Amino acid sequence: MTTAETTEPVPWSAGAWTAPPVAVSEEGAALLVTAAEGSDAWRHTSYGFVHDDAHALLAPLPDPGAVEVSFDADFGEQFDQAGLVLRAGAETWLKAGVEVSDGALQAGAVVTLSRSDWSVAPVPEWAGRRVTVRASRAGDAVTVRARVDDEPFRLLRVAPFPEGVPVAAGPYCCAPTRAGLVVRFRRWATGPADAALH
Description:
Elements: E1 8-9, E2 16-17, E3 23-27, E4 30-34, E5 41-43, E6 50-52, E7 55-61, E8 65-72, E9 81-89, E10 92-101, E11 104-113, E12 115-116, E13 119-122, E14 130-138, E15 141-148, E16 154-160, E17 167-174, E18 182-191
């Protein structure tokens, strides 16, 4: 499993926003991002709507390659969320991280290949702590892992993703149901893809 020793930090200035946040500021090495009320990323499935205005700070990701994003999971309103995005286009993307759903913090992922899906698992013990999400892309798949603090990474998802299509990747957040969400991102890094699934 790749660790921080084999990843290289990406400067916040290297990315471009898919949708500008309400406010962005740097505090030491951290990036503070204020999400717009109603911002979200989703296509069709079950809800019947398309939202493509989540705040994602993206830069090109090598293929194969991996991206890691660390942030403080210090939020608690319905659907508050933060993590990382891999994006090939409006209909081909993946977001993974933590989200408040039904009153609990959940770790999960949305994979969108024309239509979105969603998987979550409760992680209430992660609330208020530093979360790192990692996505490793190789061949026709993306492997998503996450951890809290310095605990071992947990496998969240192995998802299909089009092979050979250029992608951009980086941190994201959004606030579908309220104003005032501020996410403190701690680190953005890239490195080699995982050598093995297990």
